[in-house]
Amino acid sequence: MPPRELSRLITAAALALAAVAAQAEPCTLVFGQGRNPTLRGGPDWDGLNQRFNAAVANTLDAQGRRVIPLTASSVQLDPDAAGIALLREADRLRCATLAETTVFIDEQETLVLRLRVYPLLPAIGDGGAIVGLRIGTALFVTQRDLDPKALLRLKPELVGEQMASEYLQHDRR
Q1: Would residue 18 count as lying in a domain?
Q2: pLDDT tens for residues 42-63?
Q3: Do the domain assignments include residue 20?
Q4: Is the pLDDT of residue 14 over 90?
Q5: What total number of domains does the chain contain?
Q6: Residue 3 domain-assigned?
Q7: Digit-coded pLDDT (tens) for 108-165
Q8: Beta-bridge mates of residue 140
């Protein structure tokens, strides 16, 4: 093959690959963090949150969404730093959506399982340049409020799958 024709072929292949990469679907970062620290003899809040998070991520993945599951311990030393790191990771991975999962007992002693989905939007810095991502207003929220006694029978995998399916019904792509 003549060098000129080879050069055109390589250029065409590179342009085709760039077009495919540009059309690649952005990811959804499925982030979960507990609010209740695990106490000796008490529920494993981090484990419950990981199982719930994995169920949401697996359900979205099974429907062809590109997902990145991530959980953090309920014992977070610096929540602000964790939030900044989360947004940097989402930006690095080209995520356009944040799905927040959590299982916790609230102030009224209600067992809460929640899925909230947010857009990740460009953060504009001084001079109008994009400097990263910010979390937009929630696009979707679903929550189950249960009696704490349900914790003994709770199957976070089933609830996570159900809640993720509700989101998929809302967000048909």
Answers
A1: no
A2: 889 999 999 999 999 999 999 9
A3: no
A4: no
A5: 1
A6: no
A7: 999 999 999 999 998 888 887 778 889 999 999 999 999 999 999 999 999 999 999 9
A8: 117
- What percentage of the chain exceeds 90 in pLDDT? 61
In a domain, 8, yes or no: no
DSSP notation for the chain: --HHHHHHHHHHHHHHHHHHHHHSPPEEEEEEE-SSPP-TTS--HHHHHHHHHHHHHHHHHHTT--EEEEEE-S--S-HHHHHHHHHHHHHHTTEEEEEEEEEEE-TTS-EEEEEEEEEEEEEE-GGG-EEEEEE---SEEEEEEE-GGGGGT--HHHHHHHHHHHHHHHS--
Residue 100 · residue 115 · CB < 8 Å: yes
For residues 84 and 81, give the distance between their C-alpha atoms in angstroms, rounded to a whole number: 5
Q: What is the CATH number of the domain that holds 44?
A: 3.40.50
- What radius of gyration do the chain's Cα atoms show? 20
Is the pLDDT reported for residue 11 higher than 70?
no
d(CA 28, CA 141): 15
Amino acid type, 7: S
C-alpha span between 33 and 96 (Å, rounded)? 20
Predicted TM-score (pTM) of the model is: 0.81
Range of the domain at 128: 27-170
- From first CA to last CA, the distance across the chain in angstroms is 44
76: which 2 tokens?
Answer: 């977070």
